[in-house]
Write a structure and sequence with these properties.
Blueprint: H1 3-29, H2 34-42, H3 46-73, H4 80-96, H5 103-113, H6 118-148, H7 156-181, H8 183-199, H9 205-228, H10 230-248, H11 250-257, H12 265-278, H13 290-299, H14 308-336
Length: 345
């Protein structure tokens, strides 16, 4: 991996992301009474916002715990802080790159530096992602049921995106599970990789083919281990459910922080689930733009005491931008201190 090139790409991604966020903030605030927005922000309950931020941090914590659980089941003595490092790095690069394409490669690179084989690291990430998406799917079923019963009423393009997002997640989960457990599919993938190696002008083609075969065999052996020990995936899935419940509960904490009381927790949770469904198809960095737009469309009817622009800024600030800042700081700290001793090990 070319570190200098990687740094240049990262700087470009971050610069583009900041410009994009500034544009989104401008659109959210356009037409709003800035004084009313500022007043609403200044009156927000700090204790509720702090609780919301702690619930948001469960997102990082859960991913770190799950990656540690999976990698330790593969025989790697991964510490608590190593798992957290992979979680923070993944969140940062997923947030600033289109379609979250930068997260997994950055995590694989960090794992490789810690002596974890690429195939094993890849499988751990796929298993963790599958667990997260399955947990989300449970919530989406409840949201779809609420839509059919008329308890949640998304309209127009929000409804279209939500339905497409739900269907996409079904296909995505099916694909992840096939990659995890279909031996035939992995054989075909290995054949495709070997074919590409011989087709492109690559030196030491036999050596690369042998490495690819070894990586796929490692991947398969770990997949077999997960299949033989379902308790591991059961633990991971349980943690993922807690992760999703906490993350989707943040709008309720923001709601109460801003002194609102008309809607209850179930309604706000379902609205947040629908919001997540609308972002599944769109390749915006960190779902910026579509998340703010969907929040305004979905939550405008429940925030009656405060400008919806203020509620949007606070909710996204806690659930995404706050997490992004934490991931930047912690990634830098843990990257430089790879030998941090883990008191939780």
């Amino acid at each position: 991996m070319n570190t200098n090139l990687s740094m240049q790409k990262t700087i470009r991604y971050v610069a583009f992301f900041l410009i994009f966020v500034a544009a989104v903030s401008f659109l959210v605030l356009r037409g709003a009474d800035i004084r009313m927005v500022g007043d609403a922000l200044s009156k927000a309950s700090v204790s509720y916002l702090a609780a919301g931020l702690l619930m948001a941090e469960v997102f990082h914590l859960s991913e770190g715990i799950n990656l540690r659980t999976l990698l330790r089941s593969f025989g790697y003595p991964v510490t608590f802080w190593q798992g957290m490092k992979y979680a923070y790095i993944g969140f940062f690069f997923s947030s600033v790159t289109p379609s979250s394409t930068g997260g997994q490669p950055a995590q694989i690179y960090a794992m490789k530096r810690d002596g974890i084989e690429v195939g094993h690291g890849t499988l751990a990430l796929i298993a963790e992602l599958a667990s997260f998406e399955i947990a989300v799917f449970f919530m989406e079923i409840a949201a779809v049921t609420a839509i059919f019963l008329g308890k949640v009423k998304p309209t127009g393009e929000i409804m279209t995106l939500a339905v497409l997002g739900f269907l996409t997640n079904i296909l995505f989960i099916a694909g992840l599970l096939m990659v995890l457990f279909s031996h035939r599919l992995k054989e075909r993938m290995l054949g495709l990789v070997c074919g590409l190696i011989w087709r492109f002008p690559i030196k030491n083609k036999t050596k690369w083919q042998e490495k690819s075969g070894e990586m796929f065999r490692d991947f398969q052996s770990c997949a077999d281990l997960i299949r033989r020990e379902p308790k591991v995936m059961g633990k991971v899935l349980l943690v993922s459910v807690c992760q999703v419940v906490c993350w989707f509960s943040i709008p309720f904490m923001v709601y109460r922080a801003m002194g609102e009381d008309m809607a209850g927790y179930p309604e706000l949770f379902l609205l947040q689930t629908v919001l997540y469904m609308t972002t599944a198809l769109l390749p915006f960095p960190g779902a910026a733009g579509i998340s703010e737009y969907a929040f305004v469309r979905l939550f405008a009817g429940v925030f009656v005491k405060n400008p919806i622009a203020a509620a949007t800024l606070v909710s996204r600030g806690v659930s995404f931008y706050g997490l992004l800042l934490i991931s930047v700081a912690m990634s830098a700290i843990l990257w430089k201190r790879r030998s941090v001793k883990d008191s939780f090990a």
